[in-house]
Design a protein that fits this description.
By secondary structure, the chain is an alpha/beta fold. 38% of the residues lie in helices and 26% in strands. It contains 9 helices and 17 strands.
Length: 315
Amino acid sequence: MENNNKVVVAIGRNALGDTFPEQKENVKKAAKAIADLVEAKYEVVVTHSNGIQVGMIQTAMTEFSRLDSKNPVAPMSVCAAMSQGYIGFDLQNAIRTELLNRGIFKPVSTIITQVRVDPFDPAFHTPTKVIGRYMTKAEADLEEQKGNYVTYEESDDGKGYRRIIASPKPIDIYEIDSIKALVDANQIVIAAGGGGIPVLDQSSGLKGASAVIEKDYTAAKLADMLDASTLLILTSKEGIRINKGTADEKFLGEVKVTEAEKLIEEDKFNVLTSLPKVEASVNFVSAGEGRRAIVTSLEKAKEGINGKSGTVFIN
């Protein structure tokens, strides 16, 4: 593959905040990072987390159903679609405004994106993603009677039973041709938000799955299908560290895929935080020539793309 200026930017949850007002304000920082890349002549495709937002929507829709039993509980796939539209709305307007303030006119669009998952993915038998509000024991029993998984937890935010859902791996992105068409037309695209809406292929139809896809894995899949040269994962940290809190603590700068794979085998990464980012980076970089994946902070996106910040994965 010849080097190109196509970059997929994956924005973490820290860029969005926990409430409607916080998100509206926080996306301005993400917009500045995106605009810096556009000014540097990169073709930009954006994807983002939806961890807080999809849980907030699912909780609200569940309460709506409780208030009036005639209103059915919204499936997780519908909640994911709502989160894509809601986050995309704020994000595309913030990016558009930032670009116009810099004298750049470039259309920004959000694509509601469906991602195929395997119905036999082992993740469906071992759900790991906690979602929604705390429930009583009676409510949790009702959820289990519906075939859903629940878990008990105690934290600073509260305690009680919460629903847990599967996090299968992405296989295919159904709207990829639409995304490619907009990128080829020199537009900025926001796609596969929250890892995409997980769907199961059923004959000529698509059925929403009760799951959420890890956004970093979908970002890697999206970057691969677009044949991008760079996957830029923006998070709250400047990069990835191993052996935290020990005398052997180490910041990872430039890392070859083979080295990263060895560190994965040695269980050097946190399963819920850094591991998905590392595995996604390895998957993307190893699938093509001349590729790189960068993990850095939102504030240092410009330095990261220029190789001056973050953890950089290469072949």
